[in-house]
């Protein structure tokens, strides 16, 4: 008989596999937490399985993420764009940084946010170290990534790249209504309490 810990790991793996199968059958994706290479692998694997089942049926993609790896986010985004399936993106909790990018990258007309969620866009972050030549290479790479992200955000929102650069210069937090006006989402989800009026944003002078 296998040791208890090994049996527990196998049982957990079998449970996770069943959960993944359920979400694939229901054509539902979840990004919950930091966007990592592991999260991207799991989401892309699920997407490919959904594409095998039905290449044109809608997929729901729920996002609650503070962001994370740009390369992992772009891997998910490119896969979504390479398939014919329409993708409904829904922000629950928060969609920040690459999370906001994926939210805005859903199918036009099918991007939405929960009433109390938060959306944040900003320029890519990075730290450079090493010799001067290495720092220059890394700085240039960050500029290239920023250029790519801004071009796509401009496409998502219809805003000029110059405006995107200004708006992403610092952390730019938005309520759903602001994200709707900006063009990151297309509508705000209705809930039993979405009629509550919060009032104007409170700011420190």
From TrEMBL:
Q: Which PROSITE patterns match?
A: CLP_PROTEASE_HIS, CLP_PROTEASE_SER
Q: Which organism is it from?
A: Babesia bigemina
Listed GO biological process terms: protein quality control for misfolded or incompletely synthesized proteins
The Swiss-Prot or TrEMBL record describes its family as follows: Belongs to the peptidase S14 family.
Q: What SUPFAM superfamilies does this protein map onto?
A: ClpP/crotonase
Q: What class of enzyme is it?
A: hydrolase
Looking at the UniProt record for this protein, which Gene Ontology cellular component terms does it annotate, in alphabetical order? endopeptidase Clp complex
Q: What is its EC number?
A: 3.4.21.92
Q: Which GO terms describe its molecular function?
A: ATP-dependent peptidase activity; ATPase binding; serine-type endopeptidase activity
The protein in question is named ATP-dependent Clp protease proteolytic subunit
> Any idea which residues are catalytic in this one?
97, 122
TM stretches of this protein = none
Which keywords accompany this UniProt record?
Answer: Hydrolase, Protease, Serine protease
